[in-house]
Amino acid sequence: MKVMNHTEEQQTENKTSLSNGAKRNRIFIYIAIAGVIAAVITAAFTGYYLHQERAEEKKQEELLKAEKAKRQKEKKAKTTETAEQKLERVRSQAEEQGVPQSVIELLDKNAETVDFVADYEKKKDKPYADTIEEDLSNGEIPELLQWDERWGYAPYGTGIVATSGCGPTCMAMVAAGLNQDASITPAKVAAYGTEHGYVDEENNTYWRFMDEAGANWNLNSVGGMLSEEQVSAELAQGHPVICSMGPGDFTQIGHFIVLTGYENGTVTVNDPFSIKNTNTAWTFANIKDQIKAMWTFSKK
């Protein structure tokens, strides 16, 4: 058996110590390498996700810019288009949307209806107004339009108030004015007319509606043609006169209007289909031959 002397033992211990130190160094190196790799991977993933996030943000910014540019372009187009161009644009859009032909035809009858036609798809199913609100002035017969978006989309017969509801709209003006009741709207009067059979299969209002329906709103109705002197006298007493008009200044076929005032041969007219006609001073002598029937209304 070999016996190691002191020098050999010391050398062996030194070798063992060096071997252990090398192992520790290698371990430290491995750990350092692993840390570097982990840092590189983390940095890579972080960079990737930051890149993706920035790319998504940039994409959203570009989409927002494109949408803003589109809105500005549309706004510019609308502000620069002529009335005729707007009319044709709305007509084309309405045809594409499948808007009823009777509604589209409003554009040919009166260009004032352009916004009503444009909003048809968006607003046709919305609830109708319960009142005529600020349109009712103390002691006055209100000026109402059958194609007002507050009630113009409401049904009348098999159509809507805007296209064939001049009769109910005239009655609403008279009933709301004489009763000073803002709750009487064209939509409600049209519903009454339809329910009680005052509208024919072509959505024309029967004349008997003017004879009979006023009683539902506590009104007297007296039918019969009036001379200019009689018209002046009735209007002076605050009795509005609904007229059924034939072809002429107000219609090509048939239409109802309301006479609300008279002065020196001139009558004020509430035309439910035309703002322009309502704002025009009419010489009674010039329109009297277009009148086919008249009904004078007063409160019971």
Automatic annotation (TrEMBL):
Region feature (Disordered): 67-94
Keyword list, A-Z: Membrane, Transmembrane, Transmembrane helix
Peptidase C39-like domain sequence ranges: 141-272
Cited InterPro entries: Peptidase_C39-like
Pfam family, one: Peptidase_C39_2
Domain of life, per lineage: Bacteria
Extent of Basic and acidic residues compositional bias: 77-94
Stretches that traverse the bilayer: 27-50
Protein name as annotated: Peptidase C39-like domain-containing protein
Species this chain originates from: Dorea longicatena
